[in-house]
Write a structure and sequence with these properties.
Structural class: alpha/beta
Bound molecules: zinc ion
Low-confidence stretches: none
CATH superfamily of the domain at 32-170: Cytidine Deaminase, domain 2
Strand order of the largest sheet: 2-1-3-4-5
Distance between the termini: 56 Å
CATH topology of the domain at 32-170: Cytidine Deaminase, domain 2
Helix content: 25-40%
Strand content: 5-15%
Order of helices and strands: HHHEEHEHEHEHH
CATH architecture of the domain at 32-170: 3-Layer(aba) Sandwich
Length: 215
Amino acid sequence: MNSEKTFQQKYSESSPEMCRNPTQKRKNYLDWDEYFMALVFLSAQRSKDPCTQVGACIVDNEKRIVAVGYNGMPRGCDDDVFPWGKSGTKLENKHLYVCHAEVNAILNKNSHDVKNCTLYVGLFPCNECAKMIIQSGIKTVIYMSDKHAHKISTIAAKRMFEAANIEIRQYIPKKKEITINFDDINWNNQNQMPATPSKDDLCSNPSEQPRLRPS
Ligand SMILES: [Zn+2]
């Protein structure tokens, strides 16, 4: 017998029998931090950077996503033409060109502003992003990795965050992984109990026909 759990079993903790007569809500749903940090790393998968893929996600006080971003070349700067390397002359390496994930998220927000919002990001922001984070009104930064803690740009960023009273928190994952396996999902094999009534079923009894407007 196949001991591998299906997607539904892994994420719903429920057997088909339980789904027929649910009595309580699911327990292992993603909490907010897990959800937004997963979006950060999903967005990072869009990055063309061969070495470092960073994502960012900005959330307002009502947990609404107002922006996502990842590191990439500015619009119009062909990412097949501009350099992705880290060595060579300054003009021939990526650092002068790439927009960091935080910058792309802030500049591409879909809300009026990001005042008092929370920024989730994979890597602790550099000093240039820190300036923009502070000036945009973001109040909280939740990051995953601080691997550049020794760099002067990170030290400067921390100095500015502290002065500007930005709350900084490291995200410590509770789950080892969050997986979306499209093979596991396989919706076609999942039965819905009871089956959704067809239009013909609904209309077979005239007294049960749906009303379009209150009578
Ligand atoms: Zn940066």
